[in-house]
Model the fold of this input.
Amino acid sequence: MASREKWRNKYSEWFSWLISTAEIYDYGRYPVQGMGVWMPYGFKIRKYILDIIREKLDSRGHEEILLPLLIPEDLLRRESEHIKGFEAEVYWVTHGGDTPLGVKLALRPTSETSLSYMESLWIKSYKQLPKKYYQVVSIFRYETKATRAMIRLREVTTFKEAHTLHADYEDTERQVLEAIEIYKEIYDDLGIPYIISKRPDWDKFAGALYTIAFDTVMPDGRVLQIGTVHNLGQSFTKAFEVKIQLEDGSLDYAWQTSYGISDRIVATLLSVHGDDRGAVLPPNVAPIQVVVVPIPVAGGIGEDLRSYVDKVVALLKSRGFRVHVDDREDVRPGAKYYEWELRGVPVRLEIGGREVEESTVTVARRDTLEKTMVKLEELVDHLEEVFEDIRRNLKEKAWRFLEENVFRTTSLEEARKAIAEKRGIVELPWCGSDECGLKMEELIDAKCLGSPLERPSWVRGVRCPVCGGGAVTSMRLAKTY
Amino acid sequence: MASREKWRNKYSEWFSWLISTAEIYDYGRYPVQGMGVWMPYGFKIRKYILDIIREKLDSRGHEEILLPLLIPEDLLRRESEHIKGFEAEVYWVTHGGDTPLGVKLALRPTSETSLSYMESLWIKSYKQLPKKYYQVVSIFRYETKATRAMIRLREVTTFKEAHTLHADYEDTERQVLEAIEIYKEIYDDLGIPYIISKRPDWDKFAGALYTIAFDTVMPDGRVLQIGTVHNLGQSFTKAFEVKIQLEDGSLDYAWQTSYGISDRIVATLLSVHGDDRGAVLPPNVAPIQVVVVPIPVAGGIGEDLRSYVDKVVALLKSRGFRVHVDDREDVRPGAKYYEWELRGVPVRLEIGGREVEESTVTVARRDTLEKTMVKLEELVDHLEEVFEDIRRNLKEKAWRFLEENVFRTTSLEEARKAIAEKRGIVELPWCGSDECGLKMEELIDAKCLGSPLERPSWVRGVRCPVCGGGAVTSMRLAKTY
Done:
């Protein structure tokens, strides 16, 4: 907890230290601002997270595709609200070699336009619907705000964008709920806590009817948007002439949703579970789940020790654990512990003379730092339990932190004070008008995240603190990234 | 064979028909020339191929990373031979929103420059070497030649580029051999035949000491380069100051190799195995390995049939087969056969009244179109044998075609005639001089692919047909893509 408090001020520094020292993501040295390099260890964490995302999408009938990176200017401009939202941030390719291009090409900021164009060729009938596509690609935004590793990038290298197509509005509503379910499952599998809000109208995705967002509170108390789900209505299908034949034979524009997750999911995973020693990875996404450190007996790794270690490793590999043996002779065990704790390996096995003799291993947990001596024949069962316990422990701790950082009040003054002193999220009763929402931002000096998906019971009979009218829902506000 | 002959002239048309009708890759309709869309079925074939590539690289200690797409102009220009090779083909980003960028940014044509820059930060000592990185990314070339689906693209969406770093030249030579081994294994796993040549000096990679290439003969007799391995020497490490401490304490520039495979691997897989009915996929990369078609009894799929089909499918899934049941009621079995043959599914199971009664299934092979009746209890073993047989059959047929298309001769006139009449590869004795090689290109009206890695025995005592000097090796020539 002390460590948590300290973090409020040093979190940003800690994060930079972690991703560079643990060789996760090289940021700030590549000579283009806002673009970093995924190093081998970080790449693997990212891969295991993507495996989870893909599995959740695939199992619900989403199909992976790959669209071109470059979008011609006229295509990007075809939906007018959309281009207004992105215009200032688009990178433009203007030349091929020395030749000026006839049409400027945008680096995709997102793919609603290019996919809708293709859907107008692919989809002709309600019988083909619903259709759910996704891709995992780099997107580009010429950010004017300060860039930040994995969080505000000019090349977002891990953009999972899902795009769905439907025969009517009702089916988009069902799809929005499915997307929310999928995102809950993904974040639950990673132990990442979230709060789900319907974004205010003035902050929805460019071209959408409405936007639902997943937010989380980072260790410094600031809020990070970690996922969004948009009901796009018919904006893009009208702009791109995605017309389908309905069951009654008539023609109409199809309906769409889209939903995205970015590199931020990796940043969040590292940040909500990490501690002073470094990363603490849930076992399901740890590139190394078990690191084995042989403790040299009388200065060396003898034959007995080596063959016992081999036996343990063979056993664990045969049971599907991702195991690494750190048998470097020129590094002391203490230095090895430090390094693997930094990298967040969930479990370390220490094996020395005593363990060989007694046919045991010493199991050290990364999350609690506890050590237990376990008999070899019980090791596999023990590790399975420990993994499950780590998963639960990380998730509970992270959710507790989020819940401690949500503050409900009916007073603007209290809300302002809470944000100024502790950051986190404040939740106030709200009459539902844009005017009062925007006024709250000004008075509290924070940004509106939006309202819960269902009217919260505590706002019944309570008044909007700005206009004094009856509250119809609540508004959440926070200092955001 | 008749079909093969016919193909010489209609192959290009066949390929366009296949990728569009089988919904593999949508090409020619996206409004930027040379850029296509991977559709769900094609994306899966590509994924299974990438799984094989990754497995081969990972198992030999290659580590996957991800570098930024954009390379600042000054970085790209730092190695002078390299930029000369790519200058005319580079796409340039010049604006972010309305703002002109201070430095133009290139869409990566390949990543030797950006990675070497990072390696100068990462690698300090021989102790860290050898180091093997790779990434799978889109690369961009503003092609001036005619673009062609998967084969000559402006966005190559499946570029696997491996980059290795070594303490001395000898180790790069060892690495080149390892890369060749890896590529052999990859193509062997796909049943794709290849011929390996050391490219002539005038056709090596921009910045390399030398280039080894894998080529194959496409159904129309033209040759396609499907993989390259470059020994980069110290060109890039000198340009980017990648200096390492050697074992004796001295400092020197490190040594590099790089090797790449592109979307062409998918194009080749489809082309070398396909036939008039469509794709013929090897089971290891088939998105659907077994399609089950229930044959309606008396006009419908009754309960007995359905429960027997379910039983068969459950059995196959439990044994790890990728199975799909086509139980559409409004499509006739014949139309289903046509569709799944087009898509190259290796095995079709037909199940009707007789099969239910006798507890059998009818197994239809895609490669030979043979049908066999098999008892249910023997099905799994039978399928495993059939898969192995399909793999062997496809590979043998493809290798036979390649071998039939390599023509050795000592006569320029015969070589010219062979290329003009049949295309394929001609191989002539060669004295080793650039002058004679270039002269051969002119006289034969074909392009030099280069020489075998070892001096072929048949050129002993034979003369170079251009200058009449003694042949030191052979030169291969072909009409290329």
Remarks:
- Chain B is about 35% helix and 25% strand.
